[in-house]
Write a structure and sequence with these properties.
Mean pLDDT: 82
CATH architecture of the largest domain: Sandwich
Strand order of the largest sheet: 2-9-4-7-10
Radius of gyration: 23 Å
Number of strands: 10
CATH topology of the largest domain: Jelly Rolls
Order of helices and strands: EEEEEEEEEHHEHHHHHHHHH
Strand content: 15-25%
Distance between the termini: 55 Å
CATH class of the largest domain: Mainly Beta
Low-confidence stretches: 98-102, 172-179
Length: 286
């Protein structure tokens, strides 16, 4: 199996695109996969094929939908000479970049996933036709770009995401709940953990950790919290506190020296956080 990253760059001001794509034999393969840093909803318009996602195969026909989150390896193989699809891609920031955290609920179908998650939504599903119709309207707005087209597009995207939330509502396949699912989520975050372990004594950034796992910062922050049960910043602070405790117990270094070595900007910041996370005051020297 070969994999590569799609190099499509979305507009930072409006991270969205929608296009009709005609897939032909040169695009068809069952061992060539790609991933990207944005979300995708694809609607099959003509022809048929087989999508491969995370080692699973989904046969698709006109009216079927397939959704992909970021960094999710996928590819396809045609069952006919050609297959026409309507592919809509967007970054999480389109939905939840600057709004309240509750906006992240729109992205649950892309984030809260278990091992049995089904990427395909068949044309027979109650929401499939409505989502397909909304995507068609969005495509028209995208092509015409009349005044206010971005407002209409975002409104329709939120409507589609709401229907996806309803489709997966109370579906155990859509949540990271079982130990095996959580283990897979943590495994996906392994490069971010390695980044933290290698540099927690210095300056760490959410963006760099997100880049390590091919996620946007906003998406990564939410996914990290779901997988670990704590925020990225709390995890980093706890990692630094644990290191500081060990140094205070095993060396004669001063509290100031330990604070700086463990990535805290000053002693007062270290005192405050140490007491918050341990319930005690730091004591220096052996």
């Amino acid at each position: 199996m070969k994999g590569y990253e799609d190099n499509l760059v979305l507009d930072r001001a409006f991270p969205f695109q929608i296009n009709e794509v005609l897939l032909s034999a040169k695009d068809s393969s069952d061992d060539l996969f790609h991933w990207h840093s944005y979300f995708e909803i694809t609607c099959v318009l003509e022809g048929s094929g087989c999508y491969y996602v995370n080692g699973r195969a989904f046969e698709v026909r006109p009216g079927d939908l397939v959704i992909f989150n970021s960094a999710e390896l996928h590819g396809w193989q045609l069952l006919h000479r050609e297959m026409k699809v309507l592919a809509m891609v967007f970054a999480p920031e389109l939905v939840a970049g600057y709004g309240p955290m509750s906006d992240m609920e729109y992205l649950d179908p892309f984030i809260k996933r278990g091992s049995n998650f089904i990427n395909r939504i068949g044309s027979e599903d109650r929401y499939a036709a409505e989502i397909a119709a909304s995507m068609s309207e969005i495509h028209s707005e995208w092509q015409e770009r009349a005044d206010g087209y971005r407002l209409l597009i975002k409104s329709d995207v939120l409507r589609i995401l709401t229907m996806l939330v309803r489709h997966y509502h109370n579906d155990s396949r859509a949540a990271i709940a079982q130990p095996s699912d959580r283990n897979k989520a943590l495994a996906r975050l392994r490069p971010a953990f390695e980044y933290i372990d290698e540099g927690y004594c210095g300056r760490l950034t959410l963006k760099a950790a997100a880049d390590a796992v091919f996620m946007s910062p906003n998406y990564f922050s939410h996914y990290f919290h779901i997988a670990t049960g704590i925020s990225f910043s709390d995890y980093v602070t706890m990692r630094r506190i644990r290191r500081a405790q060990r140094l205070l117990e095993t060396t004669s270094k001063s509290i100031y020296e330990v604070a700086i070595e463990c990535g805290f900007p000053n002693s007062s910041n270290f005192y405050r956080l140490y007491r918050k996370y341990t319930g005690e005051r730091p004591r220096g020297g052996r």
